[in-house]
Amino acid sequence: MVNGNAVKLSKGETYTLGVTLPNNSSCYNQLVDSILYQAKSKGYQVLLLPTYYEKETESHYYTLLEQKMIDGLILTSRTKNDELLEPLRFKGKIVSTEKMDNDDLAMIYPDRKKAYDQLFLTLHARGISRVIFTTKRSASQSQTTKNKLTAYETYFGKAIEGKNYFTGIETYADGYAFAIEITTHASIPEVIYVNGDDTAAGVISGMKQAGFIHKKDFTVIGEGNLPYSEILAFSTIDFSPKKIGASAVDFLLSQSDRIVQAEDPVIIWR
């Protein structure tokens, strides 16, 4: 019988790709599913590497590439730990599915800044003024939150945490609890823009529990273009995770050394 490990070692390949991701959140489902499918179609397996935004954990996973325990590494959302990636890229192939500051590093990512600007511009042009948004991490921790905050302030003025935007919100339960909380405020926002369609569903449910009806008393906008958004008829942003996941795998298995590719998100108005 042929020893599979021996064959892999003789070729110097593991036929395994690593994927770092913060946690098992639904917002990564489509991206991960796309990576899994594309990798399997190419004869590769995938090692999922949860980080929980811990720098030490991220650094440990990076050594898997350096030690040739994986053939390539896909990075999703992470801490600002980029100083380790520059030297590491010479020891194996890495690609990020988020925009990075260093253009020498490979990345295939959604142009989130463009989506945020388009969204807030459209709301402003429609005469909507009472807009709030939610995020998982603060602007000091997340470039995504920082970009969202900058776009918001371009059209609606200075944003104050706890008044115009709220952090630490990610799941359906978070959205539900957040909705119950904001119904105690003096006025209900016209638009609540949340970071995930499952969170948006939680907001709608919580607001309904408090006696407020979606598209009558307020409007929710989500992210992800998941079935929630179609079933509950709320607007959402599609960041093309399926396309990005497949492209990330194809890059790792290609002969190319570098790629910087931005995908345009699509705002789906409902």
UniProtKB/TrEMBL annotation:
Q: Name the Gene3D superfamilies for this protein.
A: 3.40.50.2300
- Sorted alphabetically, which Pfam families does this protein's record hold? Peripla_BP_1
Ranges of residues in domain Periplasmic binding protein/LacI sugar binding = 16-215
The domain of life for this entry's organism is: Bacteria
Protein name per the record: LacI family transcriptional regulator
Organism source for this protein?
Enterococcus mundtii
